[in-house]
Amino acid sequence: MIRLENVSKSFGTHEVLKDITLSIEEGEKLVIIGPSGSGKSTMIRCMNFLEEPTSGQVIINGQVMSKKQRAHINRANSSMVFQQFNLYPHLTVLENLTIAPIRLKHVKKQDAEEAAMVYLKRVGLEEKASVYPSTLSGGQQQRVAIARALTMNNKIIFFDEPTSSLDPEMIQGVLDVMVELSKENNLTMVVVTHEMGFARKVADRIVFLDEGILLEEGTPEHFFTNPRHERLKLFLSKIIR
Ligand code: ADP
Ligand code: MG
Fold first, then answer.
1. 36: Cβ below 6 Å to ligand 1?
2. Of the bound ligands, which one is closest to the alpha carbon of residue 33?
């Protein structure tokens, strides 16, 4: 579905991604781990065309994307959930969920609102439709952000460290929502996270990015029982508590 082929990315003289080749299948649940600064965000930003590789190709369904197609695909076909929820503070929860379908997909307001309520229910927040994001806890805001990502009915959702700015007691609620989502067979999920319990439960595959290099990939089982590289072992010893 998405393939990075020999993708490298530099910012000035700093090569952040080094010759990454990686394919993601439709419906796959892929978890990306790696130390801070290893290029995880940059890699998923290349996958959804928020960032342009310095060299190499991003191929979607077998097609190399032109610049125009890239801009379109980014907006129309993938959703992203960020560490810092990025909700619109001046809009209610419901409006946060309906603005993109109404503006980008020309869905009728009433239909968009009905759909939004279904998504809010899925994340357990239907009673919060009319409040502003600032009145919600971090965990609730992140669940709203996930519901918002769902409103576009996209086949792929990128999560960039969705729980790493949350208070500890808020993390599980967000992960539970993501585990529920992962049961959708045809939804592709690409998740940067260090929640290895979550990874073990939902990942079809984990990749370890280290200083811009895809150093190791395998099943969760592999990562828990038989990691090869010393740098991965060291990293895992720090994140698995
Ligand atoms: P990670 O998500 O693994 O923490 P990032 O992909 O955010 O890593 O960043 C990898 C490296 O690239 C970091 O050293 C970061 O400072 C640098 N970097 C990321 N984005 C930019 C940018 N827009 N301009 C310059 N440097 C950047
Ligand atoms: Mg990052």
1. yes
2. 1
CA of 152 to the centre of ligand 2 (A): 24
- The tens digit of pLDDT for each residue in 55-67 reads 999 998 888 877 7
Helix (H, G, I), strand (E, B) or coil at 234: helix
Place of tokens 């959930």: 81
Among 175, 211, 215, smallest CA distance to 191 is for 175
Whether 37 is in the pocket of ligand 1, judged by its Cβ within 6 Å, is: yes
What is the pLDDT of the chain when averaged over all its residues?
A: 94
Which ligand ends up closest to the CA of 54? Answer: 1
Q: What is the pLDDT of residue 76?
A: 63
Asked whether residue 75 carries a pLDDT value surpassing 70, the answer given is: no
Q: Tokens 């049961």 — which residue?
A: 183
What sign has the CA pseudo-torsion 103, 108, 109, 114? negative
Nearest atom in ligand 1 to 34's CA: 3
Element (H, E) at 224: helix 220-225
Instruction: Tell me the C-alpha distance between 31 and 207, whole Å.
Output: 6
Instruction: Identify the CA nearest to 181 among candidates 216, 157, 207.
Output: 157
Q: ∠ CA 49-52-56 to the nearest 5 degrees?
A: 105
Output the pTM of the full model: 0.94
The finding on whether 16 has its CB within 6 A of some atom of ligand 1 is yes
